[in-house]
Amino acid sequence: MSHRGDLTERLITILILLAERPHSQQELAKRFEVDAVTIRRNLTELTRHFMIVDEKVGRERVYRFSDHYEFHPPNLTPGELATLLLAQQTIGATGLTAFGTPFGRYGYSLLDKVRAALPKALRDKLDVLANIFGSAAIPAKDYSAHAETIDRLTNAAMSQHRIRMRYRTLHSGAVKDRLFDPYAVYFDPDGATLKVIGYDHKRQTIIPFSVDHVERLSETTDSFSRPPDFNLSEFLTKNCFNGIHGDPLTVLLRARGTTARVFAERTFHPSQRELDRTTDATGNIEIITIQMTVAQGRGLERFILSWLPDAEVLEPAELREKIAGILNQSLGSASPQ
User: Fold this and answer.
1) Vertex 163, ends 160 and 165: CA angle to 5°?
2) Are 175 and 165 contacting, i.e. CB atoms less than 8 angstroms apart?
3) Selection from 32-41, 43-52, 183-192 with the highest mean pLDDT
4) Which of 188, 189, 208 is nearest to 198 (CA)?
5) Contact 195, 210 (CB under 8 A)
6) d(CA 161, CA 183)
7) 109-to-104, 105, 315 alpha-carbon distances in Å
8) Which three-class secondary structure state does DSSP give residue 118?
């Protein structure tokens, strides 16, 4: 692992150790096989963001979370532990704990501790259940080669330092240098990709970038301030749909037959609402019209195309024309020469 990767792992691990109990400066230096000056520098950086205090105990300087922070392991029931175990196995199926980050080891140690806390009869039942209960999510990409990039982006986001990165776009394949303020690194389930989101100085807006398309990056000495009202979940709900970033657009979609019944059962976006429906003599839904306000672009277009021929764009007219153009283009490219 790189020096930067070592630093990120050390900072995260120090926080976990201090949450468990106070540690002396000497203990931490020995634990990470670094000198006291390095540990002191790490702790100074962490105290800027976390409620960590130090006190002299004998000849040692001891660090701990302040009295305002207390960590008490939850008293979980066997049923709750079983649920946690199954949830962790599902998360592992997405590859989230296999990126080469410090969290990978904790994912596996969590599984071991949870299993050890369960009665044998329940452990045996879970072994059987694990072959039945699972996740359809399959890692689409192997991010082990990008562990250093992930660590450096995470560190820059934590310290709020602006970065310069060389980025290769998926759309055109062009490679461009960008000045970027990283806000967060997150897993996008649409396409099972890892992304970094923040303020792009070239486009002067907040947008996400795929981590595996970052070809080179360097941290600058310039600091940035993340907007105090920025919320990752709220931003993605409003500005990203089906894995693609874009400006919000209100659309009306009509579906027929089985697709109409699927539309009635599923919520594709929090803004989704049903406008009307028609049913047959037996009560089965025949036609349904829904409205959503989602990010426009390739993500929305792919969503609509995936439900053809049983889905139709009613509004806006520009999107209807866009889908028609895509279909005509596809027919043209498929025509024999």
Assistant:
1) 150
2) no
3) 32-41
4) 208
5) yes
6) 10
7) 9, 6, 51
8) coil
What is the model's pTM?
A: 0.62
Is the separation of the CB atoms in 226 and 160 below 8 Å?
A: yes
State phi, psi for 5 to the nearest 5 degrees.
Answer: -65, -40
8 A C-beta contact, residue 184 and residue 198: yes
Please give the biggest Cα pair distance in the chain: 86
Task: Cite the beta strand spans of the chain per DSSP E.
Answer: 23-24, 52-57, 60-65, 161-168, 175-188, 193-200, 205-210, 214-223, 240-241, 244-245, 248-256, 273-279, 285-295, 311-315
Which residues share a beta bridge with 311?
255
Q: How far is CA 4 from CA 7, 16, 148, 155, in A?
A: 5, 19, 7, 8
- Give per-residue pLDDT as tens, 241-262: 988 889 999 999 999 999 999 9
Rounded to whole angstroms, the Cα distance separating 205 from 225 reads 14
The position carrying tokens 């970033």 is: 245
Measured between alpha carbons, how far is residue 25 from residues 91, 188, 249 in Å? 35, 38, 54
Residue 51 has which token pair? Answer: 């409620």
213 pLDDT tier (thresholds 50, 70, 90): very high
